[in-house]
């Protein structure tokens, strides 16, 4: 989704500047044209040559040096930019941005651009918590800057607290959010994600290998596109997507209850969760002890969440089902279009490299009610999420169903 986009990456002089190298690399890998701007202090942590090698463009470090584009570089870049990212933003840089200074490439471009500006502060916890820093951040928000809150963790000083620059993946995800279309503005979207756990006793349960990455990517992308999003999530280790209401569940019965309670509210349902088809017929109140011979566990069927939603679907609602298969992908996916009363089925072969549970990528086929089938290449799960939502937005707008 970054193909054809021009992104300015401003780097200021903090130890976290090394993470900006990975941010630059990931933006380039996603198709963006990246131009790096550095304060003089930043060049003492990472050399401009590093960023030039990764971005393929000259690095702007001085407003008064030779101009690479034949005229005033910062004016030229400001008119081309689709997004500006400042990472890391030190306490000093925040103060200068808030004061409207423009004495280096980073602050000058921040004043000159008319595109969204994403600022990622990074500094020692006491500096971040200082009233002056917080006042500067508040002023930047008033100016319309988007602030990415720092993470908590161990600092370069060895201290622990809030002030770490978020990981490059989080910065790139936030950048992509700002470039997404707002074509789901005001729409009510429900997403299920992750596995379910079906308890056998207080210690043991039946589950599957789902990590929730695909569903969380869809929820995050839908919120970034303006939707009101409820994410019904089984157990995962993923951070909460920003701007999303999280409803946490354990079992398939709990997920079914929470989803069906919102069946009349939602306009779009995306069933990305790997819901257990069966649960133990008997729950043992105490831990089951080892015994000689085989153990027989009777299983009973869980309700089918997407089929139940499909049975009561009203005109205008859009249902997207998922099919994680190991054989006969095409026939299973097409069968789900009918059995779930779905508008789209997103199917993948989980035995394919890069397409199974826990990966950051996915290779999917999208099946439509009208018989069309689309085979997407291997993409990141964020890119798959946007591909799905592009089609959902078209359906909501009255496209082919």
CATH H-level name of the largest domain... which superfamily?
Answer: CoaB-like
**Total domain modules:** 2
**Computed Rg:** 24 Å
Order of strands side by side in the largest beta sheet? 12-11-8-13-16-17-19-20
What's the average pLDDT?
A: 95
The geometry reads as elongated
CATH architecture of the largest domain: 3-Layer(aba) Sandwich
What proportion of the residues is helical, as a percent range?
25-40%
Strand content: 15-25%
Structural class: alpha/beta
Low-confidence stretches: none
Sheet with the most strands? 8 strands, mixed
CA-CA gap between termini: 24 Å
What is the number of helical segments per DSSP (H or I, 4+ residues)? 13
Find the count of extended strands (DSSP E, 2+ residues): 21
Would you kindly provide a written description of the structure presented here, covering whatever features stand out?
With 401 residues, this protein is an alpha/beta fold. It has two domains: 6-179, Rossmann fold, CATH 3.40.50.1950; 188-396, CoaB-like (Rossmann fold), CATH 3.40.50.10300. Helix content is 33%, strand content 23%. The chain has 13 helices and 21 strands. The chain has helices at 17-29, 48-55, 73-80, 91-99, 105-112, 125-129, 131-143, 168-179, 213-224, 252-260, 305-311, 329-339, 381-396, and strands at 6-11, 33-38, 83-89, 117-121, 146-147, 151-154, 160-164, 188-193, 198-199, 205-206, 228-233, 244-248, 268-271, 278-280, 299-301, 318-325, 344-349, 361-362, 365-368, 373-375, 379-380. Strands 12-11-8-13-16-17-19-20 form an eight-stranded mixed sheet, sandwiched between helices. A five-stranded parallel sheet has the order 2-1-3-4-5, sandwiched between helices. Strand 16, helix 12 (329-339) and strand 17 form a beta-alpha-beta unit. The protein is elongated, with a radius of gyration of 24 Å. The chain starts with 5 loop residues before the first strand and ends in a 5-residue tail after the last helix.
